[in-house]
Amino acid sequence: AQKITQTQPGMFVQEKEAVTLDCTYDTSDQSYGLFWYKQPSSGEMIFLIYQGSYDEQNATEGRYSLNFQKARKSANLVISASQLGDSAMYFCAMREGGDNAGNMLTFGGGTRLMVKP
Amino acid sequence: SAVISQKPSRDICQRGTSLTIQCQVDSQVTMMFWYRQQPGQSLTLIATANQGSEATYESGFVIDKFPISRPNLTFSTLTVSNMSPEDSSIYLCSVAGLAGRLSYNEQFFGPGTRLTVL
Fold first, then answer.
1. pLDDT tens string A48-82
2. Chain B residues touching A93 at Cβ < 8 A
3. Closest to B34 in 3D by CA, of B81, A50, B43
């Protein structure tokens, strides 16, 4: 079974609108972490946001927020007020195990977001 | 975050040759990793680079094909050996545990090396 599933291969959003990128995960560990990265066409991987499994509040970083629903095993990324520069591939990733388990990440297949002017 | 550089940024290589990719970080880090991203695909972990000892490889990756070195806390190399066109990918190093900080909630990537094998 896929550990990280991103069901939206591609999405369009109108500039200045909000958009939600879906991510579901599968793990039997009680302690784990979820990451979102942005990959523009240049190929670099830009860290956006992190959510720990024990964090009681949803993570937020500027225009990025993570809608963490633990019972549903989902960690959707919400981008508010989309900008043209947000057009990129977005990857959800998971680290399994506790804080000392090492930081090996498993990645989802990615979602290509295209922001329309 | 850390400043991570990779050399070369891109290369075009002939089948059967080898290429060594360097990853340099501007501060000491606890963990370094190497990932591969095949064209149009997601990232797959190749191995964890361990300082002063052999790297830990993921299933499907072997030391003979992808030898890795990590002589200190700021530097690592990945060699892609006896290359074939199927090795054409972006290779990215990533780091965690900056300057002794807790590592579990952050991981940063280098700019990647785009490799094309003819």
1. 999 999 988 999 999 999 999 999 999 999 999 99
2. 43
3. B43
